[in-house]
Write a structure and sequence with these properties.
Layout lengths: L4 E2 L12 H10 L5 H21 L6 E2 L7 H8 L16 H9 L9 E3 L6 E3 L15 H13 L4 E5 L1 H7 L8 H22 L3 E5 L9 H17 L4 E5 L8 H6 L4 E5 L6 H9 L6 E7 L9 H12 L7 E5 L18 H4 L5 H17 L5 H15 L7 H10 L10 H12 L16 H11 L5 H22 L16 H4 L3 E4 L6 E4 L2 E3 L3 E7 L6 H9 L7 E4 L1 H6 L2 E2 L5 H21 L4 E5 L14 H16 L7 E6 L8 H7 L3 E4 L5 H11 L4 E4 L12 H12 L7 E2 L11 H26 L1
Parallel strand pairs: 1-10, 2-5, 5-6, 6-7, 7-8, 8-9, 9-10, 14-16, 15-17, 17-18, 18-19, 19-20, 20-21
Antiparallel strand pairs: 3-4, 11-14, 12-13
Helix pairs in contact: 1-2, 6-7, 7-8, 11-13, 17-18, 22-23, 23-24, 26-27
Bound molecules: glutamine and zinc ion (ZN).
Length: 766
Amino acid sequence: MSTVKTSNLGYPRIGRNREWKKRLEAFWAGKIDEQTFRADMDEIRLGHLLDQQAAGISLIPVGDFTFYDHVLDAAVMFGAIPQRYAYDGGAVSLDLYFSMARGSQTAPACEMTKWFNTNYHYIVPELGSGWTPRLTENKPLEAYRFAKERAGIEGKPVLIGPYTFLKLSKGFPAAELAGQARRLLPVYITVLQQLQAEGVLWVQIDEPAVVTGLPEAELRLLEELYTEIAAAVPELKLLLQTYFEAAEPLEVLLRLPVAGLGLDLVHDGGANLAAIEKLGWPQDKWLGAGLIDGRNIWRADLDAKLALAARLLRQVPQERLLLQPSCSLLHVPVSAAGETGLKPAVKGALAFAEEKLGELRLLAAALEDGADRHAAALEESRAALAAFRALPERRREDVAAQLAGLRQLEGRRSAPFAERAALQRRKWRLPLLPTTTIGSFPQTPEVRQARLKWRTGVWSQTRYDRFIREQIEAAIRFQEEIGLDVLVHGEFERTDMVEFFGEKLDGFLFTRGGWVQSYGSRCVKPPVIYADVAYVEPMTVKESVYAQSLTELPVKGMLTGPVTILNWSFVRDDLGRDEVSRQIALALRHEVRALEEAGIEMIQVDEPAVREGLPLKAEDHKAYLDWAVQAFRIAAHPVHSETQIHTHMCYCEFSDMIASIADMDADVISIETSRSHGELLTAFEEQGYEKGIGLGVYDIHSPRVPGVEEIGRNIEQALRVLDAEQFWINPDCGLKTRGWEETGAALRNMVEAAKQAREKTILQNA
Ligand code: GLN
Ligand code: ZN
């Protein structure tokens, strides 16, 4: 039997203790100089290489490490540097590199957006008309040499493929895709030829964009590109890597003249395996078999994986099989070893990057020597999984019974919108164009310190509660003073809008070190949904009721919606996401009821992340939107007709889901628009929307204070499309990242602009 090879697609950059982040931030703050920074970074990346080497991985990726983002690295490498950075050729300095990522005094940063359906954000390359592709530095070559010299590792350079690179870029019309690709191709080929000349064996070319479904013309373009590339570097083994979904049509991809094809066999809904079994596998091609889930933190069922491998081996020669994670391990935390605070059955179920590499190695060994030779290790894994599965909180009858009861209900309101709107108008007596905010007020250092003191036991619960009440009172007085119409309590008691609820619901756990990179040096530690989610006790009632007791004006209750909680957590993988979303919805439904019973009759259920969960393939959109909308309705609609349900969404392209937004049936939605003002308005105009709506009238992501006139213009623009009777006036998003000074100034201007718009509208209608 020949050896079964393992291959990794990418390793987390941040390090076990986020040392990568700390070094970056120290450099940005001027605390270390460039030389120290580079030396420290080299040490970190060397550590990652050695860890993978120690794990026994055959093909170790190089070039996946970065100082910020791998797409930015590619853009810089190809000289795609927008004119505003005044680049004049030559090597790209760190200064310039970080200006593109983070902006500088003179030039704003490049745009950032989500990497496919993950929570990782990449820097969007801008390929303006002035762009002439050129090679500024062969980064994969540098990475290859580094691994070889420093660790004796024969690395596998990773680079983003030309098709995906261009699909993720902006600055040219879609019709010019092929033209841009042909201009970029020679530079690509130079990079690869230099790798070939260096003696590199394998190169991983990431083409995840392929899974989104290619139109015919783009499939032909892909064939053209890879035919030319393959001809130019005949000695390199090219592994065309796809992930996050099924690679279709497989017969076309198999025709590409590359040595191997990497497929995701976890997130493909079984389609990749089915296609392999239907078409057969070309005997001279390698299969990068993505068996281990690179997107989740759970131990794999190795028996199932071995069975899958056995099926693959009926099609693929063993010496052509590479065992891989389903995608780069960038999306999981580094090591579960430090999770000592969890109960053993839970800790035993975790597999972060290090543990996943161990699983790959064990799978390869079991295939190579026969499972018998590794019976003990396999049994250990089996037992750990069994212990986790047997936890009673993962199969709660009370939750199942409540969900079964809900099936008929579907979360419908007691009356249709028009009827509710009439009742609500009478109840609330709001002025025309009512003003409000999205929920949070500045989380000042004082607020954060207070929370820390309470969490570490320096402050008692009573002391902390008093502090929060003082903050709420000050926020209410402030809002009354500046003249807002619908108030909020300010969310001072919350660190994070998902974590706050996760800590109060059953079914969640929190890791010590489960950090993943979100963008640049920013890391997040997602809550983990490991068991059935259930309501325990009121989570927000105390603060909302207190806030309402201070004022005659309405105060909105404030909750995070079920789909957002789901999309920003690591989720158990034994239940469908739709099922988990319904469990969360059911728990939130109790909270909505509790708020209403306590006299809070305007309730906002935020769903900023609803759009991010949208599947990559268009044919799957409807099913997702259907259950997402249903989850929202289950959560938000157990209320009387007079109770006004609000929702909020932000930082996404919403134009193509307005029908689903309407279907959520919130009485009022506030939605971010500063990024796509015109487009979203057109979409509302074309598709029509009858319910209450607040289009953010200023961008809260900058400390800049917008003037009354500027806000007035935004209001006027919206009123050309939307009816004044339905329009609300609010900022784009929550204000927690802002300071009080600019918040006060901006909101005063907003209230003034609203007043002027109100008078004008009344005059016009008189
Ligand atoms: N209510 C939340 C806040 O104001 C909404 C945050 C969000 O949209 N991400 O902070
Ligand atoms: Zn928002």
